[in-house]
Amino acid sequence: MITPAIQIHNLTKRFRTYRKKPGLKGAIQGLFHREYDETIAANEISFSVQPGEFLGFLGPNGAGKTTTLKMLSGLLHPSSGSATVLGFNPSDREKDFKKRFSLVMGQKNALWWDLAAADSLELSRVIYQIESSVYQKRLEELTELLDVKDKLNILVRELSLGERMKFELINALIHSPEVLLLDEPTIGLDVTSQKKVRDFLKAYNETHKVTILLTSHYMQDIEELCARVILIDQGKLHYDGSLSGIVEKFSGTKIIQMHLQQPLRTPIPKHWGEVLESSDLLLKLKVPRDQISDVCREILAQTTLSDITIAEVPIEEIMRQLFGEQKTLVSK
Predict the structure, then answer these.
(1) Percent of the chain that is helix, strand, coil (3-state, to 5)
(2) What is the pLDDT of residues 115-166, one digit of tens each?
(3) By three-state DSSP, how is residue 259 classified?
(4) Which residues of 301-310 are buried (b: 16+ CB within 10 A; e: fewer)?
(5) Which residues of 129-151 are buried (b: 16+ CB within 10 A; e: fewer)?
(6) Which H or E run includes 33?
(7) Which of 11, 99, 255, 281 is close enough to 81 for a disulfide, judged by CB 3.0 to 4.6 Å?
(8) What's the start-to-end Cα distance of the chain, in Å?
(9) Treating both helix axes as pointing N-terminal to C-terminal, what angle do 132-145 and 117-127 enclose, rounded to 10 degrees?
C-alpha cells in the first residue's frame, strides 16, 4: 500500500480576534476586560493526497484554503487534528522537512526585490546547500521550460508580474521538492502568462512526479491540471472527487441549444426551463435534467430542428451557485 504524501485528519484551526468597543470608554474597558470573537478557518478537514497527484483545492474567499496550506507548511499550528507531509509533522518544522517541500503564494514575494533574479536564486542555492553543478543543471532546465533565460540578470522589481511568478516557481523548485503547495499562482496574470504557467506545471508534474496541491480562482487552471478536486466552504469539506463529479452532484440542469428551421408557433412555456437565448431560429435553454426528454419532444412537435446540442452547465457557474458568489470563481 502506497503511503500518502499528505495525510490530514480532522484538521482544525481557530482564530481569536479582540472585539474592541467604540470610543475612549471602550478602549479603557479593554485594558481590564477583553471580549473575543472566534473564527473557525478550518473545521475538522480530512483528506489525503497520493505521491505525484495534482489536486485542486477550491472554495470561496475566506473558505480556509490558505490557512490549510499554511498548516501543511508549518507556518501555522493547528488548533486540533493532525497533518503529516511526507511522514513529517509540519508544525515541528524539521530541517529535513523544509528541504522536501515548497510553498508558493501568488500574493507574496519570496524573491529579493532589489537583487537580480540570478542573485536571488543563488541565495536559495546556498540556503538549500545545492551543489553548483546540480544547481546549474536545474536552473538550465527550469529557465528553459519557462522561457526566462534572458531575464536572469534583471532586477526582480523590474520584471513583469508574469516573469516574477515564473521566477517564484523556479525558486520554489530549484531544490527539487517532493511536495509543492501553490496558493493562487496565476492571480493577476494575463491570459498568455496563465497558460504558460499551467503548461509548465503540467509538464513538471508529469516529468518529476512532484505532489502538487493547488488553490486557484481561475477554473481553467483547475480544469486543465487537476483530475481530482476538493471543495471547502466556511472551513468544512463539502466534496472530494473528480471535477466532472461536481457537475453530477451539484448541478440539476443541462443546457440545450437548438437551431430551428422554422420559428416556434407558440410562446416559450415556463416549464421548459430558463431561457438563456432566443430568436426566430435559435433557442438556448437551461432545463432540469429530468425534463430533457419531455422538453425536446414538445419542441419537436412545434418545429423542425437543423441542429441540437445538450451540454453540462459550465463548471464556473456551478461554483458561483454553490458558494453564492458571483465573482469568486471566474474563467479566463
Answers:
(1) 40, 30, 30
(2) 999 999 999 999 999 999 999 999 999 999 999 999 999 999 999 988 999 9
(3) strand
(4) eeeeeeeeee
(5) ebeeeebeebbeebbebbebeeb
(6) none
(7) 11
(8) 39
(9) 140
